[in-house]
Design brief:
It is a single chain. With 437 residues, this protein is mainly beta. It is built from four helices and 36 strands. The longest helix has 6 residues. The two termini are 41 Å apart.
Length: 437
């Protein structure tokens, strides 16, 4: 048995403060803290076990995380790696910015977007709204006719400078002036969109439901080029993702294929299939995590018990291990953080895929209920990990030990992955944006 083990991790971030006083927010209220758990410190060995783990392993291993922090910026957006944020809120109070309920919210993964200290999101009819740090509404715009509004468009956002790109699941994409919400141009696509949006230079990129990556002009929305990959007869609702490193764009499709293309002309550089033909036949049930990168390798996982590391330059597989997760993972130093669909927090050595530690962060849920509860996303703060769930809970996890500290009852429905800005934690649900101090 080794002595106390520490993994030193160093990264960077800054932040300011957000005022919560405004008529647009609900009155601040106390959060229902369902559980408070004591942390136990012990020591344990690191294992190279590659078997599927649905129980704790090396759960007494400690890591020490210190140094600077990462602020969300263009680089982190392009790599999808959130790193560690400078957030250490006491989470004693919450307030909500309410809007009309988004239908079938459990199927989608939209994200709020921040413009400096301002927040941008949408409602059930595709109305986009922006409010400032004092929670005052700045503008509200809707660019859909009555028939389109009845389709309940779900929107994805990306921004660069004064431009806000919007793409939806009814095959429209358009650009607004982020300052005043005025429409600059609008286009229609052959298929609905279901992916992140990435922007670089004068181009932006989206993947549609036909598994086609499309490159458009920021200036007027005209298409520069597209790259088609194998289509699926049944559409998965899982949002697709991409990263951009050194003029190469890496993206996944609904069948699990990973492709690398040149951002200037769409030339295919390499492609890596991650699933066999049996998975293809049931691709509607395949859920891939978002791709993330450390600028050398790609990392991603799926709900078929596979976690991959792929070399960016060659497309070669570095390693594969068995973790059942469709959530975006996070890299801090040499450690990958992932949460399985069964509610276990995994720490993985990013160099070789060895599993370092597994802790049960659903341990506070009764056994009869936990099988119906799924994690929906997490973000890492100064001292803690903040994990949201499908039943409206926010689990606070000690970063050093991986043990659950508390479970906060935020709502009874699905919560999206948390986001941190200006030292405030924001979570989206089907009819409101929740702000925690």
């Amino acid at each position: 048995m080794n002595k106390l083990l520490y993994y030193l991790v160093i990264i960077s971030l800054t932040g300011c403060s957000l005022n919560s006083n405004s008529k647009f927010w609900t009155k601040s209220e106390k959060i229902n803290k369902e559980a408070q758990l004591n942390l136990v410190k012990k020591e344990q060995n690191i294992s190279k076990n590659q078997e599927i783990l649905k129980k704790e392993f090396n759960q007494d291993l400690k890591i020490k995380v210190e140094g600077n922090f990462i602020e969300e910026n263009e680089l982190t957006t392009l790599t999808n790696n959130s790193g560690r944020s400078n957030f250490d809120g006491n989470l004693k109070n919450l307030s909500k910015f309410k809007f009309s309920k988004i239908d079938n919210f459990y199927q989608y993964e939209p994200e709020i977007i921040f413009d400096k200290k301002n927040v941008i999101f949408f409602d059930n009819k595709g109305t986009i709204f922006k409010f400032n740090e004092n929670s005052k509404l700045i503008w509200k715009k809707n660019f859909y006719n009555k028939s389109e509004q009845k389709l309940k468009p779900v929107l994805q956002f990306a921004k660069k400078g004064q431009n806000l790109i919007v793409a939806d699941n009814i095959a429209k994409n358009y650009m607004l002036n982020i300052e005043n919400g005025e429409l600059i141009w609008s286009k229609n696509n052959l298929a609905p969109f279901n992916s992140q949006i990435k922007i670089i230079d004068d181009k932006f990129f989206i993947i549609d439901y036909s598994n086609t990556l499309r490159c458009f002009s920021l200036e007027n929305g005209n298409e520069f080029w597209n790259v088609g990959t194998q289509n699926s007869l049944i559409r998965s609702q899982k949002k697709l993702s991409m990263v951009i490193i050194n003029k190469t764009l890496y993206f996944n499709n609904s069948l699990g294929d990973i492709s690398a293309v040149n951002v200037d002309n769409g030339e295919l550089i390499w492609q890596y299939p991650t699933q066999n033909s049996l998975i293809y036949e049931s691709s509607f049930s395949l859920e891939n995590s978002e791709l993330i990168s450390d600028n050398i390798n790609l990392f991603f996982s799926n709900n078929k018990n596979k976690f991959f590391s792929i070399n960016l330059n060659t497309g070669d597989l570095n390693w594969e291990t068995k973790i059942n997760s469709s959530l975006r993972s996070t890299i801090i130093g040499n450690i990958l953080f992932s949460v399985s669909m069964e509610g276990y927090l995994f720490l993985i050595d990013k160099k070789n895929g060895n599993i370092l530690r597994v802790t049960d962060v659903f341990d506070n849920f009764k056994q009869k209920k936990r099988n119906s509860i799924k994690p929906t996303g997490f973000i890492i703060g100064k001292k803690n990990i903040y994990l949201t769930t499908s039943n409206g809970r926010l689990i606070v996890i000690d970063l050093t030990s991986g043990k659950s500290i508390s479970v906060l009852k935020i709502d009874g429905e699905k919560l999206l992955r948390p986001k941190i800005i200006n030292e405030k934690l924001f979570i989206v649900k089907d009819n409101s944006i929740i702000k925690l101090n």
